[in-house]
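// run 5 | inverse folding | seed 20
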């Protein structure tokens, strides 16, 4: 599912991040019928785009090589802080 998140920076600057988030699942040792279960899958964030806006100016910063991993880490931190809110929205 796709999400959008805004990070408000000093001097009326906004970083808008569009991303997909998959919460993963813990996996299981066995299925109901005794068959081998599924391995755990970690949570995943994929940055689709990132736009830095300053007043009327907008800059696409998602194609810079260093930014995507830094943005993914920031998104994970924000998701941890906000708890299950995004997950509940996606289930609705």
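// decoded
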């Amino acid at each position: 599912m796709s999400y959008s998140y805004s990070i408000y920076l000093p001097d009326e600057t906004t970083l808008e991040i569009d991303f997909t988030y998959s919460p993963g699942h813990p996996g299981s040792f066995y299925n109901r019928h005794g068959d081998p279960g599924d391995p755990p899958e970690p949570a995943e964030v994929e940055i689709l785009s990132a736009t830095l806006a300053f007043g009327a100016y907008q800059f696409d910063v998602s194609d810079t090589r260093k930014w995507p991993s830094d943005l993914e880490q920031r998104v994970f931190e924000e998701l941890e802080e906000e708890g299950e809110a995004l997950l509940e929205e996606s289930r609705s």
